[in-house]
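Here is the promised in-class demo. Please do not try to memorize the tokens; focus on the logic of going from shape to residues.
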């Protein structure tokens, strides 16, 4: 038995519902809303587009990080990396496409407060680290994770 911290699993946000309680994960997500009264940051990432798991919202508790969070990390449309522990999952509400901070449509990203909400899964997490994904090419990130997933399947 190891005395060190648990290893972190690099996953897609859409994979969160399959994670077990207490599992340490790292993922990329787009901010869809922030509630400063609860310290909850909602993240979404509609990938893969053909999957039924793309209607997943990560409800990330950032209370432990409030002293280090930048205001840009909580802006709707901002992409962030999160490392944290899965706390559980429940059925929830998603929404329709949202615009990023530049006014461009982010295909498949949902804002929780939109009128045309659809059902989805909400996975609660406790963040231990959060940082901006500024400069990350999201499509390259998605492609790299898919390649990694295929290699892991071959290795088994």
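The designed amino acids, position by position:
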């Amino acid at each position: 038995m190891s005395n060190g911290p648990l290893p972190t699993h690099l996953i897609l946000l859409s994979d969160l519902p399959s994670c077990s309680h207490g599992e340490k994960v790292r993922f990329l997500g787009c901010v869809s809303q922030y509630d400063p009264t609860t310290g909850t940051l909602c993240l979404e990432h509609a990938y893969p587009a053909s999957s039924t798991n793309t209607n997943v919202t990560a409800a990330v508790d950032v209370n432990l990080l409030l002293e280090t969070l930048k205001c840009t990390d909580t802006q709707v449309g901002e992409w962030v990396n999160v490392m944290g522990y899965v706390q559980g999952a429940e059925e929830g509400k998603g929404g329709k496409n949202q615009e990023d901070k530049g006014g461009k449509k982010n295909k498949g990203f949902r804002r929780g407060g939109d009128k045309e909400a659809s059902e989805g899964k909400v996975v609660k997490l406790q963040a231990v680290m959060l940082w901006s994904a500024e400069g990350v090419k999201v499509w390259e990130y998605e492609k790299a994770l898919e390649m990694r997933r295929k290699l892991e399947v071959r290795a088994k």
